[in-house]
histidine kinase
Amino acid sequence: MTGIATTNAVLAGAGLAILLIAGLVALFVGLRRARRAGALVAENARHRAFADSSPALAMVVRADARIEAPRTLSDWLGLEGEPDTLNDLSTDGTGLAPDDFAALTEAITAGQKAGRPFRLSLRVQHGARSLLAVGERAPHALNAPGGVVVWLFDASELQTQVSRLGEEAEELRGAFASLTALIEAAPMPMWYRTRELRLAMVNTAYVHAVDASTHAQVIEQQIELIEGSGMGGPLANAAIARDTGEPQTAAVPAIIKGERRMLRIHDLPLFDGGAAGFAVDIEDLEQARGGLKRFAEAQRAMLDRLSAGVAQFSADRALIFCNQPFRRMFAMRPEWLADRPEFDRVLERMREAGRLPEVRDFPGWKKEHREWFRAEGAEIEESWHLPGGSHLRVVAQPLPEGGLLIIFEDRTEQVQLASARDTLLRVRTAMFDNLFEALGVFASDGRLQLWNNKFRLAWGFDEQLLAGHPRVDALAEAGARKLAKPDRASLMSALVRAATVERQQRGGRAAFADGRHFEFTAVPLPDGNALFTMLDISDSKRIEQALRDRNEALEAADRVKTAFVENMSYELRTPLTSIKGFAELLHGGYAGDLSESGTSYAEAILESVARLSGLVDDVLDLTEGDSGPLRKTAVDMEHVAQAAAESLSPLAKERGIDLVVEVRGSAGAVQGDQRRVRQAIEHMLRFSIGGLKKGGRVLLHVDGDADRARIVVSDDGPGMSSEAAKHAFDRFAHSAATGRDTDRALGLGLPLAKRFVEAHGGTIAMLSEPGEGTLMTIELPRQ
């Protein structure tokens, strides 16, 4: 029993212990649940506070269309009471708009059946309130199986902002598209770099400039526009623009399409930390700038070579340039000009040098000329008459960029020349009117420009006709009636046309109806005009006619004289022949033996007859015109010379003259009349022998060349004066005139020799000086 009691006690203790433990556990669990319930209450209160302060309203739509929503939803929808079902959200005149309610109902149905979330914009009737409904399947915690939870946001203000932002976004998208199109269509390379200065966007011009195929290739390969670009090159400017926020500009050379071009690179910082850039081709600008600089330098060099003085003033009226003639003209020192003196100071210095006109009010004159800087479109030109008689032409030109350019031209010489020209014109007019010749000056178009009084009187033209400056054709037509042959009036037109158009001097003659004769001449003038002269040759024509009549009379007398001489010569031959025959009979003893004195008388008669016969032959030869026709054969010059010398050897021996013949092997032969050639040599030998005294010497020399034969007759006689030698070949030159003691009183030998030689186409000449002898030369052509 004791054991049982013990067992029972143990079991009871164990039971109590178990109960105690169970109670402790229950207490612990209760306390923990109480703490959790408190936490849940607190969490629920916090969630309620969040829900009450939330801008969105939560509406639970159960499967049977019943809804659970806060009171605020009725206020938003303008409902009088709290809605119980989905249909209560839209009634006549209140709640949601019918179209929006239908869309919401359809979206909720789809969410209940398929669990499809949705987002809708809802409009409230009779108000401007807009709601945004965001729905999804209700979670299990809401204990609404098959239901949908809809979050409603008051999007009235948000919608306005969204609409405005949408419009702004649309405008920005349009502007961005336009800007992108503009950048893409820009003719200059443009690009965008990221913060790391890597190329992120380029336009088509950039792609073409770097000879790439696509934009992607440029971005992928990071092809730079400037070769050798690095952090020290154009990228440095991009980095500076990015870091400082200030645009950067640099001019760098580049190779574009195989050509070297100068580019101006612009790097612009962007708000996102990147940098944009574009390149402007300034090669043409640089070329133009360089050309403009070279042009300015060439222009100034050219202005220094001008004879006119040039001064250029800037917009602030300072002298910025003047050439050498200006400095010389106004005695300006270079060191004074180096200070860029002002316009007024330059005028004062000119006045000090005496190179300004004398004016009473010099300050007012300066003020007036300062207005040149503001003159617009006016031609500024003045003439300055300076002390000492100098004349300056002053031309001023305001410059487009401001300032003034003044040119000073020294026209002193031109004024003097103009004065001299006026004087010359007056002298020319006076001389024109007092010349013996009739003069007219015709312009290149054939119009009469100037004339003198004799021109008008010669033609009998009216002053009114000439004052109209008629054409030469009209003048010729008006003057035709004055001519003996009216058709000769065209000569005036032809001569003027030849002088003005063909630039040739021509002349002619015309007879007037009143018996006057004029010689016309048209002379081209340097200025393109023509000078037409008329010289009255009436007296000359009369003298010419008288001389012609006299010449005809002399020719007739010469013919009569020649006929008389020929007849007389032939008549003399008959008695001479008889005298010679009877003298020969007497000398031959046919009439008996003669005494010694009779024989000498007969010989003297024969000698005189021979001399007289030769003289008659010479006269006949001289009066036969061209000495009769030549009988040309091959003439051996050596044989002819020897024959001529032999014929005169007796005469030479008789006078005690040494006659020497010298024939060279080059003498050869000529084509000619052997008798006439021999006679010419004989006449020359006879002339030389007749002028020498006893003991004298005559040389006959014959030679030649391929073209001609030469015959030289020289003597060592007393010679003769140049005047006598000049007339030695004249007809009937007396021996006293030539200084020769010849027996040919009429002096026909040398004239005949000249005739014979010239008939062969040859020449004859004489060279003689007193006391030096005489030398005569004949040259005969081979052919």
